[in-house]
Predict the structure of Cysteine desulfurase.
Amino acid sequence: MSQVYLDYNATAPVRPEAIEAMTRVLGQVGNPSSIHAAGRAARAVVEAARNDIAALIGGPASTVIFTGGGTEANALAVDSAVATGSRRLLISAIEHDCVIETAKASGAAVEILPVTPDGVADLDWLKARLAAWDAADGRPFVALMLANNETGVIQPVLAASEIVRAAEGWLHVDAVQAAGKIMTDSRALGADTLAVSAHKLGGPQGVGALTFGPRATMVRTQHGGGQERGRRAGTENVAGVAAFAAAARAALSEPQIDPEPRDAVAERLKAAGAVVIAEGAPRLTNTLCVSTPGWSSDLQVMALDLAGFMVSAGSACSSGKVKASPVLAAMQLDDLAGSAIRVSGGWGTTPADWAAFADAWIAAHTSFVARRRAPAA
Ligand code: PLP
């Protein structure tokens, strides 16, 4: 049976360009901090990768800090803001757990920036909240992701940045899901800090980056050596960042994913009774979040898996976790959350994969409905 992977938002398959770069660099010895020839060669690999990531996320290469993934990049931004005087953090209701949990653990007060039922941050709320800001809370810090991992909804980050800037605040943007799919230039978006992760765009897992602008001061949270200009201690993941850069270059050279095959699937599922989440909002063209009342997410994921299609029930960023999606709850869609699945394609997905997925989903749904209707034996 052929297998179709449609869970790119959990992790994307590693691109051939990234595998080539990683294996090539793994074959070369050298610590970038060493001054001999091998060390200088490793340093050259890291700095070339930094230039490529700067092209992805904006800013001079000197403002790109390599990290051990998106989680660490987000945490570095939140912790730096708290260390430099933010005592109250406004975190959007749909942020990834790594942002929300880091904020809660930081010791600062945390307030949730609500979203509309379409999953878009409520900027009127933000404006009013910042207008009433208490100076005792220090510099306002706002976390608003660029695209949501579950729904694919693209957030009005540029408009948010104007509001945050007017309040002399710090806007942090988690662009982990957006990178490689839509524009993620931190300067064009008005982000003070912006985080990305290699494995969502076809690089390896465990590699990420944070960039920061002139209004953000980075404070090291990991102590040890002076790597990354003293901002993140630890020997650089030379092969990992080379592969990250190769994946980023490949992603930047591709046209945007055509939404048509995804939208055609949505129409077919809707005809069978499914509800497309956030259908009216701007969304990443690779993501389809769809709920079928009465058919639980877990049963759907299992039935599809048996048919050879890999999708996820809500956010699958921490595997095996089965809990109601806080993202859908924030959108006041609690009724739909237990029966929602996320289908996400990417660089290796073909229109035929999407069409075959719709066939499999319809077959599984038909047999689920028939079983439910059958009289108990
Ligand atoms: N932010 C978002 C929006 C994500 O979807 C993920 C997924 O894992 C992360 C952050 C965490 O990134 P990483 O897995 O690289 O730590």
